[in-house]
Amino acid sequence: MRVFPWILVLLTASCVSSFADLATAAEPREPAKLTHVVSEDYTHPPSPQRAIRSLFPSNEQRVYAARQRVAQASYVASKVQAGDVQPVDYSVLSNAAGEQYMEGEVIEGTVVEGPFMEGDAMMPGHATAGIYHEGMHVDGTCTSCQGGGCDSCGDTCNTWCIPICFSLSLENLSVRAGVEGFKGPLNQGADGSFGFLYGLNWGTPFFGKSSGLGFQLGVNGTSANLHGASFTDSSRNQFFLTAGLFRRVDWGWQGGVVFDYMSDDWYYSLTSSQIRGELSWKFQSRNEVGFWFTASDHVSTVNAIITPQGASTPLTIAQNYQPNNMFAFFYRTPLDICGGEMRFSGGWTEDQMGLLSADMNIPITQCLAVETNFLYLIPKDDDTHTTPYADETWNVGFNLVWYPRACSAASAGKSYYRPLFNTATNGTFSMYPTN
């Protein structure tokens, strides 16, 4: 059994746990809460030296940051006492008089003058408001299932309530359809595969927003080789499932781990699974530098009979296949003009193949975005690999993504609980033959 990938998974999980505390200690990052930073220091991208120093803040820096927050809270309190700032009456949020609703609608990006809450202290300055639709509960959740029954929930809470009264939020749901071309060792060094991809991806807070964690679940299906290939008349059908946990932040350590499952039915039938993880440092400028990996020891056996083009007799195949264990460093940056993002990756596989990949998401209308991606695994060309074209692995995808519940495709890219990982495809789940 290959133990190296699993050791890497454990080390990654340990790093996420260790550095979560470090990111929390750094002023002022709390995940899934901060929408705007008041301090003038954060209005401009940091210098590289400052960004590196911020990775490991000293005890003196943390004490100084805490004193700053206390001083700011004291300043606002003195303003309230002097009558320069009117205190907010939070009694209207009490449930004593029944459920409370936010009146009207606040559009994302609206700048609200005056004090706002930062941690436990009220901070002076500007706050960027989130999206609140008319009729939505103040905390963004639907509680009608606890009282009037599921039928009373409706669409006003941006949720679906199923008979067991479980509130299912559709805020971070995306539906995609498009085309995909791919090739790997399972293509036997002959024709590539081309077909159609369709699926969905969904994210939601994990045990409430206070945890800072998100849960995601997604499925993809592909229908390829609709007219067969040079060595088989069968079409190729695949199913992918992805589920796992993640954590997004404004600045600091960000990452997660998901489980991928694949079912592939062509001139063979096989199933396989892998673990996929990611850990990155998000700078104050919102750019990211990180590392992602896939790891699996799941071996599948292919037993099939094919007739290669030009051959007079059938060829019997009895070969074991395993998911590629891939390791890559990446750089991800937001596209401020349109609200999308793009990522570039470079790395290697356990089988000593090179790796190049990129993916991009660009909103084009209020509810639609274009999603593109590619992956190329560069085969070894040495005495032990006399047919590198048979090991060559690549994937190219072009999809149209629909966000049914987001006010715009751009705003969907600003949610803390949108899925961190794309649902698995042939670009993140590829197979290679084992010895």
TrEMBL record:
PROSITE patterns: PROKAR_LIPOPROTEIN (PS51257). Keywords: Signal. InterPro entries: DUF6666 (IPR046607). Pfam families: DUF6666. The keyword Signal applies. Residues 1-25 form the signal peptide. This is Uncharacterized protein. It comes from Blastopirellula marina.
